[in-house]
Write a structure and sequence with these properties.
Layout lengths: L6 H12 L9 H8 L3 H13 L3 E3 L5 E3 L1 H7 L4 H20 L2 E7 L4 E9 L13 E3 L4 H8 L3 H8 L15 H14 L2 E4 L6 E9 L5 E10 L8 H19 L9
Antiparallel strand pairs: 1-2, 3-4, 3-8, 4-5, 6-7, 7-8
């Protein structure tokens, strides 16, 4: 039997969500209407939140997130939360599909940083480690993250060529790479077709935030005779299910769903 939800907590969180965006300072009537609450109920909840420092009331009659919440989250790291949600999912999936799995994010220097890894027993030994970095243009995770960039940011990355050819399959032409990224964005996954190692193929899918933005990517890697083109649709399905599990863990109240 599911644990009953506490309605007052749901209502209080609904009010806080409205104040979470930078610069937001909603008034009591507006917050009540958007939350589907009466003004009296919203006022009681906000008064309680104000008394513990979770919100502050501004001079204009609005409310903002208070220092109490900032203090609570000061020791929290977004990447650590992501790893905590990802790692058990990777461990389970590795046992299911028998491949090496990675999760990665885009660093400020536009390199892929691996934040989690899980290798199945007897799987292809990919020479990577948690914390190591890899070029984005030639990796499955990197292509997913590049495909999710705003157009101007992606263009700036592409014009920073030339890209180094690591194997005969490495895509180094900016126009060809741009076309591949556009295709990856539409279909929802990317492929490293032996572009880093001549005998290794990789498939990657995005991990989404509460609004559908891409915050990271998951990939599976294996020898070309295992990760065949015929096997890719099934692997994509497994990866998407894993990505959805991570999303649900991180954003349980999100309405975003994969198409």
């Amino acid at each position: 039997m599911a644990t009953p939800r506490i309605q007052s907590v749901d209502r209080a969180f609904a009010l806080l969500q409205q104040l979470a965006k930078p610069g937001s300072a909603s008034s009591l009537p507006v917050m009540a209407e958007r939350s589907g609450l009466s003004v009296a109920t919203a006022h009681r909840l906000l008064a309680t939140l104000e008394s513990i420092g979770a919100v502050i009331r501004t001079g204009s009659g609005g409310y903002r997130i208070g220092m109490g919440l900032h203090e609570l989250t000061r020791g929290s790291c977004r990447e650590e939360l992501l790893v905590a949600a990802v790692q058990p999912v990777l461990a389970k999936l590795a046992r299911t599909i028998g491949l090496t799995l990675h999760a990665g994010v885009m660093s400020s220097d536009q390199m892929v940083t691996y934040i989690a890894k899980q290798a199945a027993r007897n799987s292809y030994q990919v020479p990577t480690r948690i914390g190591s970095q890899l070029e984005a243009y030639c990796s499955g995770i990197g292509k997913v993250l590049l495909a999710s960039m705003e157009e101007a940011e992606q263009h700036a990355y592409l014009v920073d060529a030339p890209f180094v050819m690591l194997t005969p399959n490495t895509v180094t032409d900016p126009q060809l790479l741009k076309a591949e990224l556009a295709e990856a964005k539409v279909r929802g996954y990317a492929i490293d077709n032996c572009e880093i190692y001549a005998d290794l193929r990789c498939v990657a899918v995005p991990i989404h935030d509460a609004d559908g933005g891409v915050i990271a990517a998951l990939s599976c890697s294996g020898a070309t005779d295992v990760v065949t083109f015929e096997a890719i649709p099934g692997l994509v399905s497994e990866l998407r299910a894993a990505s959805a599990a991570v999303h649900a863990k991180l954003f349980p109240a999100s309405n975003f769903r994969l198409q």
